[in-house]
Amino acid sequence: MGSLEELKRPVIHGLIxxxxxxxxxxxxxxxxxxxxxxxxxxxxxxYDFFLFLLFSGVPIASLGFEYGIGAFAHELATEDINAVLxxxxxxxxxxxxxxxxxxxxxKISGVFQSFSYFQIGxxxxxxxxxxxxYIFKSILVWKQHPIRASVVMRGEWLLASGLGLVxxxxxxxxxxxxxxxxxLAFVITxxxxxxxxxxxxxxxxxxxxxxxxxxxxxxxIPYGITTATWMISLGVEKALILKELGPAELGIYALxxxxxxxxxxxxxxxxxxxxxxxxxxxxxxxxxxxxxxxxLAYSLILLGAVSWLSRPIVLIFGGERYLPSAQLLPWTxxxxxLALIPISINPILLKRKNTTPVLLTGTVSSIVTVALGHIxxxxxxxxxxxxxxxxxxxxxxxxxxxxVYRWVAHDRWRSGRAGTA
Length: 421
Known about the structure:
Elements: H1 2-38, H2 41-61, H3 65-68, H4 78-108, H5 117-142, H6 146-171, H7 175-196, H8 209-245, H9 247-260, H10 262-272, H11 275-279, H12 285-317, H13 329-338, H14 340-351, H15 356-420
Helix pairs in contact: 1-6, 1-10, 1-12, 2-4, 2-5, 2-8, 2-9, 4-5, 5-6, 5-7, 6-7, 8-9, 8-15, 9-13, 10-13, 12-13, 13-15, 14-15
């Protein structure tokens, strides 16, 4: 009975996050195929490039705080969180503006011509807003407010899909019009998150912000750098595809990876229900065993289903123009499922307040992705690009696993010595 009670809360929270993601995914299942049919394939490639820059910039702008707070969440009171939040959001806004300013300067100097000035403005708004919601969402997750966290992290994408499509249908068939609704949705979500914020009480005691920031930032920064580096490596690979194979092939690659990431997205949100429990100081062998068996069953079922149904899946999402994506789909799904392994190891790192291995493995994986992708794209095309991602993730998992295994072995050795002393 005790074992079932221990699993009850994380499973319920994980299901809430998963259902919210599923609802958002259904809207995406409706909106994205419509968008793919309405807009040229090259425009889908441009949209994917916008997302790449956005997702590369957000981890830097949010300072990795969405992970760093997790290492201390069970220790922090309401007063501590509110005190830390104010300077973090201010710094996050400043960094987002600096990132957008760099893009603007590159545009003015003629180096960067992929976006218009208006699109860069939309990028700046989206970047700052998304960084804010990442931070709000993370604290809601770590402090175990699953419904509010689901509204914030899924509401923004529901609004983005809906408003983006409305703008396209009303204002014209242009990716710029889609991005107008996209950016507006993120701004609305920030105000929605503030309205639902459960930590609004005035501080009843003085809080020293400096020491708290000094504890959190060293844990958070490796995540911010690593996530940004990994996204940049994927972006460089896409740039290689664009150069070697052209924008239409990039659009096909983008669709395959977007569909292939859906199982990863659902499972990642289910994991969110477990993370706050796994980070706590107590031992969590039962939770980890449950996750391992669930992961294995989920991966085998999904890979089998995608391999069997890849063609109809691609037809639903993109139509006949994207049928070449079908042969990539099992591999992009595998790449997404492999990403779940480092995510599940995160609690061990956060519990130890040592996230340097994340930076090490992320850097190695990013370098391998670019170097191997440069070779395999020329020899094997889009399949080669996907294989580069898979191999890089396997190498990163191997390094991270070796580090964690060494920690566990060292802890057992110390416990054995303490027991014989």
